[in-house]
Amino acid sequence: MSVIKTLYLQTEALFSFVNDPFPKKDEEREAFLAELDQRLDEREKLIAQVDRSSLNEAEQKLGAELIKLNKRLMNRLEQLKQEIRMNLTELQTKKATNRKYENPYEGPGSDGIFFDKRGV
Fold this sequence. Notes:
Elements: H1 3-18, H2 26-49, H3 57-102
Main location: cytoplasm
Protein name: Flagellar protein FliT
Pfam family, one: FliT
């Protein structure tokens, strides 16, 4: 099997894997991200093996399909990245709120501050 065909099949499998809903539990997320990273590394190695000058016509057509699939894959990966970023922001907000709840007198307080307008 040619490198292009293998790359196309692996990209298709990766695309179907990424289209599954993002796991909610931490352990499942870690496993999902580890497998995603492994699949992307394998795909990267295959991409490095592709020699564009020695492709026949059928492989060039498959390569064009591969480019279209790659664009869809990149869009989905960007969506996953945004979802992970939102989860991290949400987690940081929860941590900050929890710290304020545990120790409300920590840090500078803005209550009871008086600013003199005269500049004395």
